[in-house]
Amino acid sequence: MNVNAIREQFPILHQEINGHPLVYLDSAATSQKPRSVIDAVKRYYEWDNANVHRGVHTLGSRATEGYEAARAKVAAFLNASSEEEIVFTRGTTTAINLVASSYARTVCGEGDEIVITPMEHHSNLIPWQQAAKATGATLKYIPLQPDGTISLADVEATVTSRTKVVSMTYASNVLGVINPVKEVAAIAHRNGAVMVVDGAQSTPHLKVDVQDLDCDFYAFSAHKMCGPTGFGALYGKKAILNRMEPIEYGGEMIDFVDLYESTWKDAPTRFEGGTPIIAGAIGLAAAIDFLQEIGLDHIHHHEQKLAAYAYEQLSAIDGITIYGPKEGRVGLVTFNLDDVHPHDVATALDSEGIAVRAGHHCCQPLMRWLNVSSTARASFYLYNTEEEIDRLAASLQRTKEFFGHAIG
């Protein structure tokens, strides 16, 4: 990978923040957008802007073609067996809520089980809490190992014949852990449960094959993989999607409407009522083209090198605690600096042009498991460099010394 050439394609990176060149280390929250994605969205609004699946005029036809071409591109990107298995949503959160509300609330009942882990983002935790409360099902957690990983033995012990749903993040947004979702899916299926994968943190960084994983649902967001905000997709096995009821009703998702009864189209259309985020689909398609041109394998290898280098550089600073396993992680490092609040760390770094995330990262149960209230997180993507990590480490050393003098 020619990282310098890649960086040239991201206009936002070429600016100063507080008098320093920007070092953007918050891609796990949202990635930056290359010129090709920005141009694709701009081109749609300038030349093709019209509603989809409605008008027969030229603009409507071009908009519909672009929207459905994006669906086909997502299906190929995930290796889905059909583009009918791709439901466009507002992102991972909406996709998981769709499964929890439409599928889980139908199949779960008193005494049934929903299984997740304590490392889940709130978007893959709260929907299952609510589904369990609504149906009388029991919410169960696969325990974490001391380093934040999960063991398949614990999965086997937690998932039972009463389990209806197993839902798990493919990659943790705090620990960086890459979970064995393929093996977990096999365990879920042996017990008659479906497997839901939160792919928000994996899709931008790993080559994903939903047929190989044999998951029943897979959710992801465009904005974490160089695409627009407010858009994403849910993959679902076609037979399951067509058994599910829609949770939003309106235009285009209907088959026939009478005064007192209505019927629905097959998936995915039954889940896409109303005017969709057409520009989001166009932008996501452009983002997929951009990532595939570089290669997901190359991106993953680059990020692993950055994560290992960051782990090494930050570990050399006295008083830093790094969370999660040293090996086998996606491109992020979550840490705390002794006696300095993560928000103060992030503010100090920002004063030198370095953007990191600070807080509970929408993972409050995991924070409690780590015995902290919050952490700082530096996350890397294809446009980051080792030199930027050097700047991060040097700034953290200065931050430590500054607060050490202040406390002293």
UniProtKB/TrEMBL annotation:
Looking at the record, the residues that make up the Aminotransferase class V domain are: 23-392
Enzyme Commission number(s)? 2.8.1.7
Q: Would the keyword Transferase turn up in this protein's UniProt record?
A: yes
Entry's SUPFAM superfamilies? Answer: PLP-dependent transferases
Which GO MF terms does the UniProt record name? cysteine desulfurase activity; lyase activity; pyridoxal phosphate binding
Example GO biological process? cysteine metabolic process
The organism of origin for this protein: Paenibacillus cellulosilyticus
The similarity comment for this entry is: Belongs to the class-V pyridoxal-phosphate-dependent aminotransferase family. Csd subfamily.
Per the record, what are the reactions this protein catalyses? (sulfur carrier)-H + L-cysteine = (sulfur carrier)-SH + L-alanine
What protein name is recorded for this chain?
Answer: Cysteine desulfurase
Q: What does this protein do?
A: Catalyzes the removal of elemental sulfur and selenium atoms from L-cysteine, L-cystine, L-selenocysteine, and L-selenocystine to produce L-alanine.
Alphabetical UniProt keywords: Lyase, Pyridoxal phosphate, Transferase
Q: Which InterPro entries match?
A: Aminotrans_V_dom (IPR000192), Aminotrans_V_PyrdxlP_BS (IPR020578), Cys_dSase_SufS (IPR010970), Cysteine_dSase (IPR016454), PyrdxlP-dep_Trfase (IPR015424), PyrdxlP-dep_Trfase_major (IPR015421), PyrdxlP-dep_Trfase_small (IPR015422)
What EC class is this? Answer: transferase
